[in-house]
Amino acid sequence: MESDIDEQQGADLLARLIRNELPDEHGRYGPFGGCYAPETLVPALTRLAENVYRYLDDDDFMAHLDSQLRGWVGRPTPLTLAAGLGKRWGAEVYLKREDLAHTGAHKINNALGQALLAREMGAKQVIAETGAGQHGVATAAACARVGIPCTVYMGAVDIQRQAPNVDRMYQLGAKVVAVETGDRTLRAAIDEAFRNWVADPEGSYYLLGSAVGPHPYPYLVQRLQSVIGTEAREQMLNIAGELPDLAVACVGGGSNAIGLFHPMLADDSVEFLGVEAGGHGPGLGDNSATLAAGKPGVLHGSYSVLLYDGDGQIQDTHSISAGLDYPGVGPEHSLLKTIGRVSYVTATDESALSALQECCAVEGILSALESAHAFAGAREWAQQNPGKRILIGLSGRGDKDMPTLSQHIPSPLVATGDAA
Amino acid sequence: MTETPSPRDRISDALRTANADGKVGLIPFITAGYPDKDVFVDTLKAIACEGDVVEVGVPFSDPMADGVTIQRSSHAAIAAGVSLQWILDELKAAGDIGAPIVLMSYLNPLLAFGFDELAEKSAAAGVCGFIVPDLPWEESESFRHSLDSKGLALVQLVTPVTPDARLELLCKGSQGFVYAVTITGITGGDVALPPEVTNYLDQVNSHTELPVCAGFGVRHAEQVDNLGKHASGVIVGSALVERLEAGDDPAAFLASLRA
Q1: Maximum separation of any 2 CA atoms in chain A, in Å
Q2: What residues does CATH 3.40.50.1100 cover in chain A?
């Protein structure tokens, strides 16, 4: 399991990725990916892979998905010219508005596609994990729409900081299980969802929310999220008249980033920037900057870059945004970093908060804390590269973050009479 | 002069010897260094007196195939400073504990250690094989290659949902013994013995000459007795760890299972 790739091998791997020849028959993106699952899940994953390749290449299935994406999710989502940010940054800034998709984030693209797949596969129930709660809400909504019962595992820490989303899941008919083991965030929720899938691998469908996990999940999630980049590419050509110089997205597990980047990987003129959570700073345990500080290892079913110590124990992470608070990253991102096609940087909690406030102030858009990391990364890049055209993946809206935001930025109430 | 058996053969020999004595093979499992790091080797020797093969759990931060007991013991052991290096150092210093040792570990601690160095140091510490619950056969080639050079076993797990063709592949590939997971689920439950379970164990046996050992959810003498009619041995993990947590004598508990 070597991850040393020379320039020629890197170019070959990129060409294969663009031709959709990766992941290969072993579920690999070069050295990354694979299927490191408990034996009980191997038959279920084999069956899932067969169905993924069957249905994602089936015209009827894809036409039905497309009609649901239009009629129920509200796609295509708009591309917004962010003139205020552009003026401040000395750039031409466009926002791909996944915050306007049904349930408020890009997560619905994947949840709907997989819920439809689960129905085709005859699943009796859906299980899912959630960090920020956006994937949980999207899964609850998609399962209600498709008509399959759904259970969502959510870390107890995340239940606290994303309370509005817990209530939304209940309203949408999902059963929410608080995970009190491990680090009680997204990572523990994934551990627990896997444990429950192991107990019923044939009747349950595990609806994984990011581009991580054993094969075929990273591929399945990339395919379902690529609607973001496919639409954005066409909208850039129609509205801006040209492709962006830079496409930026936040990266936790990396589903919205892979969805935005993948359809434009063949466009040589486009640079890509993934922004990870820099948390409080570079210290061990103070951030979730997997690609910046990690090394290859195996967690949650795939070989990819991870944060772990010298004994192989997975590190606790920190981010102000629950959706980025994860010690791993999808295997396609590990490849894209290794071959140099995508640059990955970090944004601290503080810079994400200030970027969020700036976007509110000049664009009238409350972005999710996760997406605010993309704004922070884009702002810094714009300072170093003046006059460029920048496309930002605005992956979700920030309503769910109000408890955290109120804590960090208290709202001063204006008394009657002082209003003027 | 008889040839020294390879480490992997020591595992199967120990189980066959128990069977030849009219006993069900017994494989006790403990999480290394839990609940008390200072008495790890003493505990190991005590359970080795009652067991035929001893399984030592390398703690991992994310034990996704384990129930609450092993999750608890793993996190506590990590907090107490137990690592793969510490375990190998302790085992090497202890010398022969009286039974072949198999290490159970998730893959990442093994990757972090490095496969070749691990095989060498494990052999030197008297370890005879490995059980790796998140390493399916298809991903195991490089690790098997490292273990082969020292004659160490990579024990394959099979489950009630393993299709027949795959069962044959895994049984053929396994070394030391075949680990038959009795339930579709995680460790720590309580397995009943409906005809499906006994039929499944008989089916596993039909694919291999190696001893077949049943694990997950084994806690009572009656289960051990019944499983023994369809398997060469049983693995007792969570139930033993719970006894250790309660301060009970592990040897007495193990002896009661084969009474």
Answers
A1: 70
A2: 36-69+107-217, 72-104+219-408
